[in-house]
Amino acid sequence: MKVVEHINEAKDTLFSFEILPPLKGKSIESIYNGIDPLMEFKPKFINVTYHREEYIYRERDKGLLEKVSIRKRPGTVGICAAIMNKYHVDAVPHLICGGFSKDETENALIDLQFLGIDNVLALRGDPIKTESTFKPTENGHSYAVQLIDQIANMNKGNYSHDEIQLAPTNFCIGAAGYPEKHFESMNMATDLHYLKQKVDRGADYIVTQLFFDNKKFFKFVEDCRAIGINVPIIPGLKPITKMRHISFLPKFFHIDFPDELSSELLKCKTDEEVRKIGVEWGIEQSKELKAAGVPCIHYYTMSNSSEVKQIAGEVF
Ligand code: FAD
What we know:
The protein is of the alpha/beta class. It has a single domain (3-315), classed as TIM Barrel (Alpha-Beta Barrel), CATH 3.20.20. The chain has helices spanning 3-9, 28-35, 76-87, 102-114, 144-155, 188-200, 214-226, 245-253, 259-266, 271-291, 306-315; strands spanning 14-19, 45-48, 54-59, 65-70, 90-96, 119-123, 172-177, 205-210, 233-237, 296-300. It has an 8-stranded parallel beta barrel with strand order 1-2-5-6-7-8-9-10, surrounded by 6 helices. The model has no long low-confidence stretch (mean pLDDT 94).
């Protein structure tokens, strides 16, 4: 079933979460161990992130270096199939532009349709670590909107090669939104302009980047509605659980902590103290969002479900 169908059917705010494929060498059990504790909150869908290859330089003979591609977290499509099979819950694979040609994307989408996966979150992806700006793969997409075009075209039965006669796909397409602006955008208005383009070209709903200040989310929704973005907007939340999150999260995700939260975090000396505040903040944030009638609250577990379980236990 499609994410938007779940939203349309729901009488109350839905619960959903996102998992990361495990590091190479781990088994599917590590995924199940992260999902099992959250099943009591009846998620209608579970997202699975996609992680593109990284490059390292390895010494060949006589001091010559060769560039080698390594993949740390394999298996988004396989994990989605396993989740749907074991839990009978819809899986939402993340599909990114980076690292894929259009033909490879088309093949991935054909695989997803074959497996009965109705949903895709369409993203551009970040630049790889060795590059300062995002570089599209040869014959690949530069922006998420082009990936959305490709999926929307397949939904109309238009594949990239005319000689292939296949039935139209029927994917529900999600897109990313940024209540505190995407870091590359000149300003919020430009970012919203491109977000509207993604919706106009086929995105059925938006999931936001994580944020800690509900006021920024509410303003974002208001600004989206003002320019005619009328699809459901799902807030994305992540509990702060470690001392290192205090500097890592703002830097990596280009977000601010509200003053009230930062002043509490400044007093913390241990991970346990940070965790307590992170969970309390997550509960308050979730309660306020739920009271405001958001369609769903989406939690970023980042391979750790215990704090999300604590929050959900108070809210759902
Ligand atoms: P886009 O929508 O393409 O936007 C990128 C930038 O370009 C923005 O600044 C935008 O304003 C601008 N822009 C957009 N369209 C145009 C245009 N036509 N012309 C000029 N400028 C334009 N990354 C992963 O690698 N794997 C994941 O699984 C993953 N999951 C995510 C889930 C969510 C909910 C979110 C919010 C992000 C996720 N990301 C993931 C990170 C995401 O890939 C990065 O934030 C990336 O930098 C931007 O992706 P996007 O889809 O928002 O890009």
